[in-house]
Design a protein that fits this description.
Elements: E1 3-7, H1 12-21, E2 27-31, H2 48-62, E3 68-78, H3 99-109, E4 119-131, E5 134-146, E6 162-164, E7 169-170, H4 176-182, H5 184-203
Parallel strand pairs: 1-2, 1-3
Antiparallel strand pairs: 3-4, 4-5, 5-6, 6-7
């Protein structure tokens, strides 16, 4: 039996990544829009985990517990900016989801900063609610550096600025398959799959 899993998001890039990573599992991945949930959930938590749980629980209750719900909160933490933008990554420049302005602000704040200050990591926390008595929390991260200019054709978020030394390229330059295998979200989802393995096998 195919299980339904609703992602508490309408972000096409995020949902595409999750679908690719879960492609071998008997799980139907649906966005909020696809299940008729049309709300904005205020992300007012002080941690990624708080924000992810709030989104998952809100959608789970709206759906009257008829599907598993997954939510994530992720962001960029830069050493030279004391961990900023952190939970404010999507609205770093003041306008939610404006990647161009967010990247411009980040570059401006790091102008003339040394390599140590440009050290950064992407962090992703995922919360999956199977039922209100079973909540799974996992976290993944990937370390890198912030470039002095955008690189690559993938303009999603901070990807064109996030340089991974061991691959000598930014997330923005990486093929989707490579990024999805090493990203913070991929690492969190791998942990999630291990947590869910027995549950999935029991239900199918």
């Amino acid at each position: 039996m195919v299980k339904k899993l609703v992602v508490a998001s309408n972000n096409h890039n995020k949902i595409r990544e999750i679908k690719q990573i879960f492609s071998k599992y008997p799980i139907e991945i649906l966005s909020m829009k696809e299940v008729g949930v049309n709300i904005d959930i205020e992300e007012d938590g002080v941690t990624f985990s708080e924000n992810a749980y709030k989104k998952a629980e809100t959608v789970y209750r709206i759906l009257e517990q008829k599907a598993m719900v997954l939510a994530d909160d992720s962001g960029l933490m830069v050493k030279g900016l004391n961990g900023e933008p952190g939970v404010h990554s999507a609205r770093f420049a003041g306008e939610h989801g404006n990647d161009k302005k967010n990247n411009e602000k980040l570059l401006k704040l790091l102008k003339n900063k040394d390599r140590e200050s440009r050290k950064a990591k992407f962090l992703c926390t995922i919360v999956l609610i199977e039922d209100l008595n079973k909540v799974i929390r996992v976290q993944g991260e990937v370390e890198g550096l912030i470039c002095e200019e955008e690189r690559g054709s993938n303009k999603f978020g901070y990807d064109p600025l996030f340089y991974v030394p061991e691959y000598n390229m930014t997330f923005g330059e990486m093929p989707a398959e490579l990024k999805n295998s090493i990203s913070h979200r991929a690492k969190a989802l791998e942990k999630l799959k291990r947590e869910m393995k027995k549950y999935i096998e029991r239900e199918i």
